[in-house]
Amino acid sequence: MLHRRTLGVAVAAALAVAVVAGGGAGAQDAVGDDPSGLLQRLDDLEVVLPAAVPPEGVDLTAGQTWGELITDATEARAMIDAVEPDLRELFADADDAAGDVADAVALVARGWLDVWTGVASLSAAEDHDVAFPVATTDAEGTATGADEVRTEVEVGVELLLEGHARLLEGYTLLRSLDEAGAPVQARLNERAEAAETYDEEIRPRLRWMVSSPTVTVAVPTDRFETPEPGVVSRASSLEILCVDREALEAEGGVATEEVLARIGVVERVGCPQPPDGLG
Predict the structure, then answer these.
(1) Structure letter (DSSP) for residue 202
(2) Which pLDDT tens digit goes with each residue over 186-205?
(3) Taking the model in full, what pTM does it have?
(4) Which among 83, 110, 140, 232 is most buried, taking Cβ atoms within 10 Å?
(5) Which of 115, 114, 89, 111 lies closest to 37 in space, CA to CA?
(6) Are 18 and 158 in contact (CB under 8 A)?
(7) What is the DSSP string of 236-251?
C-alpha cells in the first residue's frame, strides 16, 4: 500500500521532459507590469504557494536503484492549483517586460508552473493502490500496470528538477538585485536560501534516483604533494575538490587551475562520495 508521504521509485532510463508554461495567459492592462508591480504580484502569490519545493526529502538505499520521496504531492498540487492562473498571467507579463527584475520574476513563475505539473504526476502515483512492483502480471499473465505508475513518478521528478533550476536562478537573481521593499525582499531572500539548500541536499539525490548524471564532479588536485613527508606517501596524496558539472562543462570540461579559479567549488550532498555508501 502506498502511503501519501512516501513514494517508492525504481530507477529506469532518465526521461527528458520539457514544459512550456506560459502559453495560455491572456492580454492584461499594463498595471503591475513595472518592476515594483511584478515584485508585488509575486509576493501576493508567495503566501499561497507551498513553503518548500517538493519533495522535502529523498531516502536512498545503498546498492539499490531505488528511492523514496518524502512529500505530500496532493497537498502541494492543491496549493498551487489555487494560484495557477495567476502564475501563468504573471509569467506572461514578466516575460513580455524588459529588465533583470522581469527576467527573474518570469523564471520564478515558470519554475512554479513546472513544479505544479510535476506534482500532478506524483499526486497520481500517491492515489494509486499498488506498491510499484516491477514487471508484474496477474494470474492470467496480464500486466498489472504498476510500471506505468512508476513512470509517472519519474516524469514528476524530472519536472521538479527543471522547476527547481528555474526557481534557483530566479530567486537568487532577485536576492542579488535587492529591489523589493524590506518585507518582500526578506521573503525573496528566504526563498533564495531555501533554493540553495535544495540544490545542495535534495537535487543530487533526485538525480541519483532517476539515474541522471550527478550534478557535481569530484576533481583531484595537488597530486603527489604530500602534506607530511615521510608519513603520507606522495603516491596517495591528493586533494579532492567538488565543482558544478555544468559549470565545468561550460569551461571545456578540463579542471585546470585557471578554470577552477573561475568556477569555484561547491558543497553538495554526495561530495566527494555519494551519501550512505552510494557510488
Answers:
(1) T
(2) 999 999 999 999 998 999 88
(3) 0.69
(4) 110
(5) 89
(6) no
(7) T--EEEEEEHHHHHHT
